[in-house]
């Protein structure tokens, strides 16, 4: 009751009435606010007009912009009019980029910011026009020329709107209400151990297409094959049978396929591909031609499978030498996005000896995924189903499904991506099991070719025994175990004497392990965690290697984490200073002692790439 009175006091009555009326209309007509469309992939290969650069902004920490209807961009018309907002004469922000690191007053803000971009456009009746966002954290409400196009939720995946019928000749204005406030039913939910960078964090583009265009395609090897493509192409805007041609000039391949009436084109063919692998990251120029459109992509072909307790890449058993990475700009901090950021982070991972990177805990920008593929580093893609998720909520389940669909939609032709991860450290419950099992089935329907996993940390420790029991493991290809022995969990005995008990027999990846140390801290008792010393962290890594050596079914390990990163929950004033210090590298890229232990281990594991 009190809440209601407060709302009436602080918001003009007419706006409350208006909101109520809209709600009523929605309930009565079943009309809900428009959702963004699933985004086109391979945006770089399309005809683009970039909307990156300077955007005008209005900061809205108190949430007043909604009832002032900022998207209408009203101007005073009569002498007695005044309008209490304006994009003109206000601050601006760079897009792509998080807002927290661009304005000191926004450093720790989780709030609303309204963005505006003006662009000029010449109408072309032969073309369709899409407004594409690489990612906005966390929610985005998008308006064009005062009309709402729709909304999107989820900070790490692309979305778009078709604006062919709304764009005008001449001046157009886009307004986006961005809100990075965390919420209980969000993904992630309320608690997470990374910095919640808000804003339009990835590229914004206008995409021009022909009226009938190549909307989507999946061109990858079939599940068990080394030479047979089992995919599809989707043509948008046709209602008749059409030809689609696939060309791979290097292989002298030129094949024609027929669509159905709705534009779906099944694509099957064989070729003698040189398979993609970390040793030979071969990509082919693949051209897809419809009667009215052409799209080119760099695509690689490889086979990833689990047989027994091992992972096989192109028929050879592999050991995954991996590291976790958060999407933070090397050295500078802030949300990473550029190819340069990707090159530095992946270069560090390669120096360490990695053949895989886990892009924790959400889909990273496309530069990371593409560059890893070019460098011969396999990728683990993950959705932010992280720790305390409200699995009982149907809305949350629908969001999980949407984010997974968007991640797979974007990255499905990147052969470097070998694992879809559907969650991290969730608590066992009937609701969790049901939602994640359900999600795993949907994932396999969308893409049956990759391995899927869910990361779990509820193993039981007793008398130097580790019992891995979670029923969820049954539904996934790889058992991904996070264990922090030596840090959150004390060693239970000699690491080399540890006994594992696995309820399910599958390949095991230790997906997180490690501990904190501040670079350059070498004083204090070396056997005390609270010394935050490099030596303490180094010992954890030595002990972990001893543990790995007695871990049955071990198919790989993935250290937490490559670089120290910002996390406001890390509050020790001397050693953490707002950073999670589990990095093998400091935030400036300096190597801690543990780095050398893992580097040695990975060098020894390189020899494990064997034929079955
Ligand atoms: C974990 C989480 C990771 C954390 C890490 C830590 O288990 O999966 O997101 O950041 O531990 O440093 O505590």
Structure overview:
With 612 residues, the chain is of the alpha/beta class. It has three domains: 45-210, Galactose-binding domain-like (Jelly Rolls, Sandwich); 222-297, Immunoglobulin-like, CATH 2.60.40; 306-610, Glycosidases (TIM Barrel), CATH 3.20.20.80. 19% of the residues lie in helices and 30% in strands. The strands form eight sheets. Strands 22-23-24-25-26-29-31-32 form an eight-stranded parallel beta barrel, surrounded by five helices. It has a six-stranded antiparallel sheet with strand order 4-3-5-10-7-8, with no helix packed on it. Helix 4 packs across helix 5 (366-375) and helix 6 (394-411) packs parallel to helix 7. The longest helix has 18 residues, at 394-411. It starts with a helix and ends in a 7-residue tail after the last helix. The model is unreliable at 1-32 (pLDDT under 50). The structure holds (2S,3S,4S,5R)-3,4,5-trihydroxy-6-oxo-oxane-2-carboxylic acid (GCB). (2S,3S,4S,5R)-3,4,5-trihydroxy-6-oxo-oxane-2-carboxylic acid binds next to loops.
Q: Which tags fit this structure?
A:
single chain; 612 residues; alpha/beta; Jelly Rolls; Immunoglobulin-like; TIM Barrel; 3 domains; eight-stranded parallel barrel; six-stranded antiparallel sheet; 9 helices; 34 strands; 19% helix; globular; binds (2S,3S,4S,5R)-3,4,5-trihydroxy-6-oxo-oxane-2-carboxylic acid
């Amino acid at each position: 009751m009190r809440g209601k009175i407060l709302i009436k006091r602080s918001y003009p009555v007419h706006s409350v009435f208006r909101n109520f009326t809209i709600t009523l209309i929605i309930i009565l007509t079943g009309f809900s606010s428009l959702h963004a469309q699933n985004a086109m992939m391979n945006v770089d290969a399309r005809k683009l007009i970039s909307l990156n650069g300077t955007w005008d902004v209005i900061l809205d920490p108190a949430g007043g912009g909604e009832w002032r209807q900022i998207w209408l961009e009203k101007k005073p018309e009569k002498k007695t009019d005044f309008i209490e907002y304006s994009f003109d004469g206000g601050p601006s922000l760079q897009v792509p980029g998080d807002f927290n690191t661009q304005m000191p007053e926004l450093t720790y803000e989780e709030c609303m910011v309204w963005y505006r971009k003006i662009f000029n456009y010449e109408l072309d009746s032969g073309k369709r026009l899409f407004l594409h966002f690489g990612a906005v954290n966390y929610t985005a409400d998008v308006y064009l020329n005062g009309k709402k196009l729709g909304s999107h939720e989820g900070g790490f995946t692309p979305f778009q709107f078709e604006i062919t019928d709304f764009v005008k000749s001449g001046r157009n204005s886009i307004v986006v209400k961005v809100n990075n406030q965390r919420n209980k039913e969000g993904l992630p939910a309320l608690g997470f151990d990374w910095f919640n960078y808000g804003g339009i964090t990835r590229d914004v583009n206008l995409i021009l297409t022909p009226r009938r265009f190549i909307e989507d395609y999946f061109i990858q090897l079939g599940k068990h094959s080394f030479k047979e493509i089992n995919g599809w192409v989707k043509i948008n805007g046709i209602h008749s049978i059409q030809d689609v041609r696939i060309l791979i000039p290097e292989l002298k391949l030129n094949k024609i396929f027929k669509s159905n009436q709705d534009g779906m084109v099944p694509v099957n063919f064989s070729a003698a591909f040189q398979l993609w692998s970390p040793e030979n990251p071969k990509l082919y120029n693949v051209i897809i031609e419809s009667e009215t459109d052409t799209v080119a992509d760099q695509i690689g072909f490889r086979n990833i499978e689990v047989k027994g307790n091992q992972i096989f890449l192109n028929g050879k058993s592999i050991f995954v030498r991996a590291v976790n990475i958060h999407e933070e700009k090397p050295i500078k901090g802030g949300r990473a996005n550029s190819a340069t950021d990707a090159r530095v982070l992946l270069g560090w991972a390669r120096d360490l000896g990695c053949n895989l990177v886990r892009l924790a805990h959400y889909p990273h920008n496309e530069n990371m995924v593409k560059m890893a593929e070019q460098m011969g580093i396999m990728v683990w893609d993950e959705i932010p189903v992280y720790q305390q998720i409200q699995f009982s909520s149907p809305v949350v389940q629908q969001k999980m499904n949407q984010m997974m669909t968007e991640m797979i939609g974007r990255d499905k032709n990147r052969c470097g991506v070998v694992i879809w991860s559907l969650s991290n450290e969730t608590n066992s419950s009937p609701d969790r099991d049901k939602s994640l099992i359900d999600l795993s089935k949907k994932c396999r329907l969308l893409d049956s070719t990759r391995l899927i996993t869910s990361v779990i940390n509820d193993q039981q420790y007793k008398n130097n025994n580790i019992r891995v029991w979670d029923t969820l493991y049954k539904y996934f290809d790889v058992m991904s175990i996070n264990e922090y022995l030596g840090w959150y969990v004390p060693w239970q005995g000699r690491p080399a004497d540890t006994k594992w008990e696995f309820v399910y027999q599958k390949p095991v990846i230790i997906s997180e392990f490690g501990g904190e140390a501040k670079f350059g801290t070498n004083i204090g008792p070396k056997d005390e965690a609270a010394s935050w010393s490099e030596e303490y962290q180094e010992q954890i890594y030595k002990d972990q290697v001893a543990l790995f050596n007695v871990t049955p079914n071990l198919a790989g390990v993935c250290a937490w984490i490559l670089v120290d990163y910002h996390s406001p929950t890390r509050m020790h004033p001397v050693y953490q200073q707002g950073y999670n210090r589990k990095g093998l590298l400091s935030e400036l890229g300096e190597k801690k002692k543990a780095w050398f232990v893992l580097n040695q281990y990975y060098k020894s594991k390189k020899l494990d790439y064997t034929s079955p």
